[in-house]
Amino acid sequence: MKNVDYIIVGGGYAGIFFAHQLIAHNKSFVLFSGDRKGASKVSAGVINPVVLKKFTTFWLAEEQIDFLAKTMSEIETYTRKNYLINENIHRIFHDEKEKELWLSKTETDELGPFLNSYFETLETIKNPFGTGSVKKSARLDVDAFFKDFFDYFKVNNQLIQEQFDYSQLSENTYKDFTFKNLVFCEGMGVRANPYFNDIQVIPNKGHHLKVRLSVKLDHQYTLKKKHFLFPLNEDVYYYGGTYDPNEREDEIDEFKREELIVGLQEFYPHDFEVEEINYGFRPTVKDRRPILGNHPEHENYFIYNGLGARGILNGCYFSRELYEHIENGKKLIPEVDLKRFIKK
Ligand SMILES: Cc1cc2nc3c(=O)[nH]c(=O)nc-3n(C[C@H](O)[C@H](O)[C@H](O)COP(=O)(O)OP(=O)(O)OC[C@H]3O[C@@H](n4cnc5c(N)ncnc54)[C@H](O)[C@@H]3O)c2cc1C
């Protein structure tokens, strides 16, 4: 038998950021990662404190951005890399009215820290009304982040690349392991989890393209009109992701490819080739808040889910909340507490 402080199930943003808390606090763990692809590895990696449809911000945005920067510096001490790409989002305006709305929001306490009042017109793309940039926005180097973490776990014998089999779980024992706490970070995989499958986590399917642009952009910004466009390497760019709250099959929806092509053609006037299309299912919650907490009968089995469209900011920030709750009895913020779903 091998004794560990924690078993983590799932290696997306929830699992990885929680693992970081364990590494930072010298706790032992193993992380199970199945071969079913999750949402995190297909995500754009955009870190954005502003809702760019309506020019509003969201709950805890500033605290989350600051905490992410601090966490990334801590991670750098052991992976030797900082995964934050400090390129701002440039929102392409649809018309003058939208630009005026943006400008008026720059004067509010809520949006002032995030919306730049200086507008830019960019070369190569169609942007007759210019662009406004979002301060404190950035991108995560998603591929490098996951590759390095998985390599790190392998070297430290912390990674088990197999599907966690719920039928093999009995109290504090799973196969050859005994553990103090078990944290389920399964994203939409939670539907197969007999302990938490009654929790309403709703899939929101997202597709994105990898495209080869015939005329490269002369900057590294993240552009946003309908969706995000940014460079992955020399001339391959990420464009996406779509939002589809309807229940969909686990396969590529061809009509989304078309939708993305049309979206990109709206502001990119040159030829491009689609190299790849991918999709994933965001784990969302009706009240748009993550879900943290323990099973009512198995008090050391925890759920960490519902990161929604903000896997990076939510995933990073609430990992610490969950860790502090488990180890130091810190009360969970009621808005994210699993108890809100338990009928009295
Ligand atoms: C197209 C797209 C673009 C996005 N862009 C952004 C963005 O720019 N910025 C942002 O912050 N967020 C973005 N998101 C949202 C973000 O990806 C999600 O919020 C996040 O990935 C959820 O992370 P998670 O760890 O909860 O779930 P997942 O990433 O789905 O990870 C769960 C993992 O658990 C594994 N698993 C499940 N059950 C088991 C089991 N029994 N045994 C072993 N392993 C198991 C799965 O295989 C999976 O790998 C995007 C999502 C999509 C789909």
From TrEMBL:
This is FAD-dependent oxidoreductase. It comes from Kaistella jeonii. PANTHER family: SARCOSINE DEHYDROGENASE-RELATED. Residues 5-322 form the FAD dependent oxidoreductase domain. It comes from the Bacteria. It holds the Pfam family DAO. GO terms for cellular component: cytoplasm. Coiled coil: none annotated. InterPro entries: FAD-dep_OxRdtase, FAD/NAD-bd_sf.
